[in-house]
Amino acid sequence: MRADGSRAKPLGTGHGQLLTGVAWAVLLLGLWVWGRDLTDGVAAQLPTTGDVAAVGRPPGAPAHAHAPLAASTTVRPTLLTIGALGVRADVVARGRATNGAVTPPPRTAPGVVGWYAEGPPPGGKGAALLVGRVATPSDRAVFYGLSSIKPGNRVEVQRSDGSTAQFTVEDVKLYDRAHLDARRAYGAHERGRSELRLIATGGTVDPASGDRSTNVVVSAYLTGFTPASPVAG
Q: What does the alpha-carbon distance between residue 91 and residue 83 come to, in Å, rounded to a whole number?
């Protein structure tokens, strides 16, 4: 009770909310920073209009969403398949660097996709983040051509328990990095849904900074699930 008769707000509640907000802000800032060093070499030219351009939207009625899979602290993604792009890539867990940025797969492994392991796994509730390179100084990398994927295309993620989560692409957007709203780009579109983000950078290169002009963000949502095959005997 304060001297003026009003009740003091419990310290723990406000402090906890502040810490949560700061952690989320640091992650989103880190994702933006990570994008600055995501690709090298000859990525495709990706035009944008304003701060964001929609590459495509689903034709007709969207596929029915599947309920998020049961939460697990041990299940992780192991293999990403994008049939429309001919992608079949191993997935490795990645964390954050000291500056808050998500650490991408190493340049020595351009065919590998990184999963932000501090977030939900593909199939879990919320938006799972998968990040990959578009090119290296000498060749194409795993997410080369990512902007050409179409709404309605299927993305499959095999998980460490032998199950497979199937996603349907909802939209493909090109974000002007100078006006990027990280929460809008990477956050979940619908509360309570299982979503997937495939993230890369592209566009023209600023000769002064070396930064690329565009973030490619493919958004998909869970529409199917194949459980692990039972082990005989």
A: 16
CB 228 within 8 A of CB 163: yes
Is 3 a domain residue? no
- pLDDT tens digits, residue range 77-121? 999 999 999 999 999 999 876 655 567 788 889 999 999 999 999
- Residue 92's beta-bridge partner residues? 114
User: Of the candidates 23, 126, 121, 138, which has an alpha carbon nearest to the alpha carbon of residue 76?
Assistant: 121
Q: Give the separation between CA 30 and CA 101, rounded to whole angstroms.
A: 3
* Tokens of residue 117, six digits: 């392991």
Domain count of the fold of the chain:
1
CA 69 to chain centre: 18
4 falls within a domain: no
> What range defines the domain where residue 149 resides?
11-226
User: Is 1 part of a structural domain of the chain?
Assistant: no
CATH of the domain at 162: 2.40.260.10
Q: Are 94 and 132 in contact (CB under 8 A)?
A: no
Residue 119 CA to residue 124 CA, distance in Å, equals 9
Neighbouring-strand partners of residue 175: 52, 215
